[in-house]
Amino acid sequence: MPLIKVESLVKRYPMGKSQFTALRDINLQFEKGEFCGIIGPSGSGKTTLLNIIGSLDIPSEGSATVLGKKIEVLSHKEAARLRCRHMGFIFQTYNLLPVYTVFENVEFPLLIMKMSEKERKKKVLDALEWLGMTDKIDYRPAQLSGGESQRVAVARAIVKQPELVLADEPTANLDAENSYNILERMVKLNKELKTTFIFATHDEKVIRYLKRKIYLVDGRVAKDEVIH
């Protein structure tokens, strides 16, 4: 059974008295452990598709089954539970909490899961070690560079060792050196933890690392390419 199955998916948004169709008849499957990307220019529908897979939005038509759950029939509480337990999210704006330390930012998803303090500490330290950030554990976001902030955001996304990590333009605000640093660490996590990574991107630095490239044009899949 695939990790994710998207069938005949259509997404429309109201636009004045008419509607804008962001996604048109999308049919895709993703298996566990993939390192893949949804590629396309702004307005192609890639973020919309990522949001539906992440249960942050629902299809207008068709179906998206993620980790055995049909996204379109989940209640808000059920969708939140699915995200909390099984997914990690990485955004281009980092979304770190400014008053929290690096440790506290990474710990935050585990607090929501009501994990014991001992277990939380071990998982946070493991995640920060994977991302090479143990020396900045007591820093606050304002004291970090862009690359360091994004590494903390990645640590927060993978601290609970989710089955699925969704990354929306994660390198958009980073220079080449920091981008490659982050991507190399993501590849390592993908191999060691078998975490599935799905990117929404048009960044060539990301695209060259992908093992599967799904190209969207005007809300349709134009090409689905597996790299051997």
Measured by DSSP, the beta-strand proportion falls in 25-35%
- The CATH topology name reads Rossmann fold
**Name of the top-level CATH class:** Alpha Beta
Helix content: 25-40%
Overall number of strands: 10
| Strand order, largest beta sheet | 6-7-8-3-9-10
Q: Briefly note the structural class of the backbone.
A: alpha/beta
Distance between the termini: 22 Å
**Major sheet characteristics:** 6 strands, mixed
Shape: globular
Mean pLDDT over the residues = 94
Assigned CATH superfamily: P-loop containing nucleotide triphosphate hydrolases
Number of DSSP helices?
Answer: 7
Please identify, by name, the CATH architecture.
Answer: 3-Layer(aba) Sandwich
Number of domains: 1
Q: Report low-confidence residues grouped into runs of 5 or more.
A: none
Rg: 17 Å
Following the backbone from N to C, one meets helices and strands in this order, namely EEEHEEHEHHHEHEHEE
What does this structure look like?
There is one protein chain. This protein has helices at residues 46-53, 76-86, 102-112, 117-130, 146-158, 176-193, 204-207, and strands spanning 4-15, 18-30, 35-39, 61-66, 69-70, 87-91, 164-168, 196-201, 212-217, 220-226. α3 packs across α4, α4 (117-130) packs across α5 and α5 runs parallel beside α6 (176-193). It has a single domain (34-59, 73-226), classed as 3-Layer(aba) Sandwich (Rossmann fold). By secondary structure, it is an alpha/beta fold. Strands 6-7-8-3-9-10 form a six-stranded mixed beta sheet. A four-stranded antiparallel beta sheet has the order 2-1-4-5, with helices on one face. The model has no long low-confidence stretch (mean pLDDT 94). The protein is built from seven helices and ten strands. The protein starts with a strand and ends with a strand. The longest helix is centred in the C-terminal third of the chain and has 18 residues, at 176-193.
